[in-house]
Amino acid sequence: MSGIIGKKVGMTSIFSADGRNVACTLIEAGPCVVTQVKNVETDGYNAVQLAYGERKEKNTPKPLIGHFKKAGTTPKQKVVEFRDFRVEFEGQVDLGKTVEAGQVFVEGDFVDAIGTSKGKGFQGVVKRHGFGGVGGQTHGQHNRQRHPGSIGACSWPSRVFKGMRMAGRMGGDRVKVINLKVLKIYPEKNLLLVSGSVPGPKNSFVILEK
After folding, report:
1. What residue intervals traverse the membrane (predicted)?
2. Are the beta carbons of 202 and 27 closer than 8 angstroms?
């Protein structure tokens, strides 16, 4: 599995060859620096660790400063490990080398995007779980359009089952969206245009896996 770290720039739309208007997301993918290469002999598995985004040295823990210096690079914001990096990158993912979007992806590839969804705070069941609400104002009901209704916990089981869909904190979760098509690559600017939406707000980190 190969991949790269990027930053969500925003959303736009383009017209496909058959005239359809396709919603897409612009992602600044890389450049990333290889900060560690793991192998079966020393670590028990094969993996490549990539780092992305500049970070002030005064805000970086000393162990991480030493880790980045070993790779010959400045402190980075985001570090991600990709296991079993594809064999065609042999020699390109040595310690300290730079990995760019054009080296990993080609137009037409399908990628998986991983990000942290927008935090929405405490939300009710209609927004959080898609409930329909209790209903209209018949049978003497009022002010209950967006309420959850009965949860079924009467004298038995005399408790609320774990996992019951109720109101609570929503968003801020790790979300993976699969099979997004790479529509366009701008290698000189390290930009990718992928179909569909990607989780997270603008300028948030995104992990792209191939």
Report:
1. none
2. no
- Cβ burial, residue 91 (10 Å; 0-12/13-18/19+): exposed
Give mean pLDDT, residues 109-132: 94
CA atoms within 13 A on the CB side of 128: 20
- Residue 120 pLDDT > 90: yes
Closest CA to 26 of 202, 159, 210, 179: 202
Return the residue matching tokens 């992602």.
Answer: 27
Q: Would you say the C-alpha torsion 103, 108, 112, 113 has a positive or negative sign?
A: positive
Tell whether the model's pLDDT for residue 88 goes beyond 60.
no
Mean pLDDT, rounded, for 5-13: 94
63 by Cβ neighbours in 10 Å (0-12 / 13-18 / 19+) ranks as: exposed
Number of C-beta neighbours around residue 178 at 10 A: 10
Is residue 148 reached through a cis peptide bond, with omega within 30 degrees of 0 on the bond before it?
A: no
Count the residues in the chain. 210
How many CB atoms are located within 10 Å of the residue 172 CB? 12
146: which 2 tokens? 């967006």
Q: How many Å apart are CA 166 and CA 168, to the nearest integer?
A: 6
Distance CA 46, CA 40 (A): 6
Residue-wise pLDDT for 161-183, tens only, equals 999 999 999 999 999 999 999 99
- Rounded CA gap, 74 and 60, in Å? 10
Q: Give CA–CA dist 38/84, Å, rounded.
A: 9
Judged by DSSP in three states, 88 sits in helix
